[in-house]
Specification:
This protein is mostly helical and 293 residues long. The protein is built from 13 helices and no strands. The radius of gyration is 20 Å and the shape is globular. The model is unreliable at 44-53 (pLDDT under 50).
């Protein structure tokens, strides 16, 4: 699996070279980082460190996330209003992924081994920065793809090819928003807490993540019981028009699905405007502050 990710991430090697990175060093660093991810895999809100390293740990996590994604696609199967069903789906995905990545992302963002291993070596700053950024994106998409895959397949089966083509574009915007939210939370925690308290706060997030995850696993199948179909009416929840997940769901109005709340169809453009603005803010303001903290 790592070979596939490494091949895909190194395909635009000419671009990485143009940005000032040493391609061979970049490939070697990413290869080691991905291998270490296998041996110290991310887990869903882990509370304890694994007792021993495991090979192919990231593959096992992707399999677990694949089965978890089956739970998240229940709204797509049960709720008839496609805009509302996608709103529920993206809300679940955003909440669980943000909480989970806050606990697991610290392994990537706060990795201090570069200071002792790579800094003394003849590796340029741009190569180091590029390796960190590409590793973060591989780490993130390795989490997102298996979680969203069941919903992607189900949308293609129920709605046709247009829905299947639209889904990855909207999902990518959601990933940008999640990345902004996770880095924003880290920056707030670093600004408001003492260095010694940071791990304690992350442990609190781990507890919340575990509660949310297991509640979803046990309660979602009962809530969306196919033997007792629920005709959700979005008009009973008009406050959702102010949530980003509803703006993401509105994108399905582009391919012919009706919008129950009149006058909100134009909010779908925020699906692409908001994440882009968030990424600009992340790269221009939050990332420099985060690095200094």
């Amino acid at each position: 699996m790592n070979k596939i990710f490494l091949y895909l991430i190194m395909m635009p090697s000419a671009l990485w070279r143009a940005l000032g990175a040493d391609v061979e060093q970049l490939r070697a660093i990413l290869n080691v980082r991905l291998t270490l991810d296998d041996r110290r895999p991310m887990t869903l809100g882990r509370m304890t460190k694994p007792k021993k390293d495991r090979k192919f740990g990231s593959v096992m996590n992707m399999i677990v996330l694949l089965f978890t994604g089956i739970i998240y696609m229940f709204p797509i199967l049960v709720v008839r209003d496609r805009v509302f069903s996608m709103t529920i789906f993206f809300s679940l995905l955003f909440t669980v992924m943000t909480l989970t990545l806050i606990t697991d992302f610290s392994n990537v963002l706060f990795d201090s081994r570069d200071k002792y291993i790579l800094f003394p070596r003849p590796v340029s700053d741009r190569t180091l920065v590029m390796s960190r950024l590409l590793h973060v994106f591989v780490y993130l998409f390795r989490f997102v793809i298996p979680t969203a895959l069941p919903a992607w397949i189900m949308l293609g089966y129920l709605d046709g090819w247009k829905s299947a083509v639209l889904f990855p574009f909207v999902l990518t915007m959601l990933v940008f928003l999640i990345l902004f939210a996770v880095n924003g939370v880290y920056l707030i925690v670093l600004r408001l807490s003492q260095p010694g308290k940071f791990n304690d706060i992350i442990n609190y997030f781990q507890i919340v993540t575990s509660v949310v995850f297991f509640t979803t696993v046990y309660m979602a199948p009962r809530f969306f019981n196919p033997d007792h179909p629920r005709d959700f009416n979005i008009l009973d929840h008009t406050w959702v028009r102010f949530t980003p997940s509803y703006w993401f769901g509105l994108c399905w109005s582009w391919i012919g699905f009706p919008v129950a709340i009149e006058g909100t169809a134009l909010l779908s453009v925020l699906t692409f405007i908001l994440p882009v603005l968030c990424m600009v803010a992340l790269l221009k303001w939050l990332t420099p502050q985060f690095s200094r903290r």
